[in-house]
Amino acid sequence: MKITVIGTGYVGLVTGTCLAEVGNDVLCLDLDPKKIETLKAGGIPIYEPGLEDMVQRNVAAGRLHFTTDIEESVAFGQIQFIAVGTPPDEDGSADLQYVVAAARNIGRHMDDYKLVVDKSTVPVGTADKVRAALAEELARRGAAIEFNVASNPEFLKEGAAVEDFMKPDRIVIGTDSERATQLLRQLYAPFQRNHERLRVMDVRSAELTKYAANAMLATRISFMNELAVLAEKLGADIEQVRHGIGSDPRIGYDFLYAGCGYGGSCFPKDVQALRRTGQENGVPLRVLDAVEEANDAQKQILVNKLVARFGNDLEGRRFAMWGLAFKPNTDDMREAPSRTMLDALWAMGASVSAYDPAAMDETRRIYGERADLQLVDSPMDALKGADALLIVTEWKVFRSPNFDTLKSLLKAPLIFDGRNLYEPRAMREMGFDYFPIGRP
Ligand SMILES: NC(=O)c1ccc[n+]([C@@H]2O[C@H](COP(=O)([O-])OP(=O)(O)OC[C@H]3O[C@@H](n4cnc5c(N)ncnc54)[C@H](O)[C@@H]3O)[C@@H](O)[C@H]2O)c1
Ligand SMILES: O=c1ccn([C@@H]2O[C@H](COP(=O)(O)OP(=O)(O)O[C@H]3O[C@H](CO)[C@@H](O)[C@H](O)[C@H]3O)[C@@H](O)[C@H]2O)c(=O)[nH]1
After folding, report:
1. CA–CA gap between residue 223 and residue 218 (Å, rounded)
2. Ligand 1 pocket: which residues have CB below 6 Å?
3. Which CATH architecture describes the domain 2-199?
4. Quick one: pLDDT at residue 259?
5. Is 326 in the pocket of ligand 2 (CB under 6 A)?
6. CA 321 to ligand 2 centroid distance, Å
7. 259 appears as a binding residue in the annotation
């Protein structure tokens, strides 16, 4: 099939590439000429395991193309995926300007049937807005051309995006059109594996499903984070509790890890947007108010522990930070807990030496050169002469360090671990002062 994907960010690029991988002809459009140049030159503008090889393979096979030319992109695909950003507006609602602009571009240039698919995360009612924008552009041209709009939210996780797209748990399709359903059934047939993954529903339910999924996951995390704080006070171990409750199939083991807060480009923004939708409809989502409040507090937790130890005048102190990305296997730092911690440490006069396997360039882009931030080339380099180590992201490379070296490099054997990477007892036996989350 011939597919156009509008927006080549995490979602657009993964969608386009994976659809090409199963044999479709795909054209990816982005308005950012730098991204398209990079892609045309065989590189990818983001860090995502397995993606670069797949892009190169499909470009070489002639199935995957990139452009900044809107007219060309509209003409290309019968199916047009909208995968542009939907960042939070000032009031927390999703800013739909990019989605609507993409829809208008289609309406301006289409000259045969198009199925327009919202893949971006968008509030309930957005498909109606996309339909209206398209219809308006067609009316302006005096053109009567058939089109359908469907919702197909994306559930991939950064760092595992290719795997998630190729082997989805479910594929949600929201549409009231038989033609759209048939086209999307055909398109997604290669991703079904051993049983039916497609959930076809009405558009509004599909739009809400995406927010419901992210809000549910964020709720689990905030709940575990609050329990972890309580466990610490009670002398209980949140890791034992996690095993204890996860064995109940109604609860399950996944996504129950207490830590230093959730970040990323999705949970914070989507929880906010869903709360906003609730407010606009006179339905306060009190649980989500608490989820967000708990997460804001949790992002401060390592700094609070550090202040309890050193006081809040950190002038002249230096701390090592392992991990800057909001989670492992990505260079994404949007809403990353590391950023909250850096700001707090700097505000108290401390400096930081930091290492992340993928997010160093992104850190440089965000903070530029500053005297109170040293970006170093290895985990051990961050430790030299530091007052303590803060572990913020659970990259594999941090899981089994040489603890003797670690201890010899730090000023004192002190670790604040926001991701519970080590066994407290073993750490104590090795002579560390070790502060995990929710563990004795
Ligand atoms: N990142 C994720 O893990 C993830 C997962 C599921 C869903 N989502 C949702 O998918 C959407 C996209 O997220 P992302 O992380 O890929 O965003 P992103 O910011 O990485 O990429 C969006 C891209 O769209 C381009 N763009 C904007 N307007 C355009 C237009 N009119 N025409 C062509 N290109 C245009 C931008 O230049 C940018 O490259 C969001 O709604 C997000 O919530 C993201
Ligand atoms: O038990 C857990 C699991 C995750 N996290 C944190 O939660 C955040 C989000 O993690 P994750 O969900 O793995 O990353 P995202 O790439 O943001 O993916 C989420 O957001 C995407 C965008 O909407 C959705 O498509 C995915 O299904 C959804 O998992 C990160 O900061 C993690 O450190 C925890 O603290 N504890």
Report:
1. 8
2. 6-12, 29-32, 35, 83-86, 98, 101-102, 120-121, 154, 156, 158, 265-266
3. 3-Layer(aba) Sandwich (3.40)
4. 98
5. yes
6. 21
7. yes
Ligand 2 center–CA 262 separation, angstroms: 7
The answer to whether 238 touches 231, Cβ cutoff 8 Å, is yes
**Residue numbers annotated as active site:** 266
CA 41 – CA 44 distance, rounded (Å): 9
261-320 pLDDT, tens digit each: 999 999 999 999 999 999 999 999 999 999 999 999 999 999 999 999 999 999 999 999
ipTM value for the complex: 0.97
Give the mutation target among 5, 6, 11, 13 for probing the ligand 1 site: most ligand atoms within 8 A of CB: 11
Q: What's the CA-to-centroid distance between 331 and ligand 1, angstroms?
A: 16
Q: What are the distances in angstroms from CA 348 to CA 2, 242, 304, 310, 312? A: 56, 34, 12, 11, 6
Q: Atom of ligand 2 at shortest distance to CA of 210?
A: 23
Q: Answer yes or no: is pLDDT of 193 > 90.
A: no
* CATH (one of 1.10.1040.10, 3.40.47.10, 1.20.1250.20, 1.10.3470.10) for 211-296: 1.10.1040.10
H or E stretch including 173?
strand 171-174
Ligand 2 proximity of 264 Cβ (cutoff 6 Å): yes
Evaluate if residue 184 carries a pLDDT over 90: yes
Is residue 181 annotated as involved in ligand binding?
Answer: no
What is residue 196's predicted lDDT score, i.e. its pLDDT?
85
Please state, for a pLDDT cut of 90, what percent of the chain lies above it: 98
327 annotated as a binding-site residue? yes
Ligand located closest to 160 CA: 2
pLDDT digits (tens, 9 = 90+) for 107-158: 999 999 999 999 999 999 999 999 999 999 999 999 999 999 999 999 999 9
Domain 299-435 has CATH 3.20.20.220: no
Q: CA nearest 422: which of 406, 438, 436? A: 436
What CA–CA distance (Å, rounded) separates 262 from 276?
A: 19
Whether the CB of 266 sits within 6 Å of ligand 2: yes
- Please determine whether the domains at 211-296 and 299-435 fall in the same fold group of CATH: no
Model confidence at 323, in pLDDT bands (50, 70, 90)?
very high
**Distance from Cα 27 to the centre of ligand 2, integer Å:** 29
Six-digit token string for 130: 């996309």
* Phi and psi angles of residue 84, each rounded to the nearest 5 degrees, phi first: -90, 170
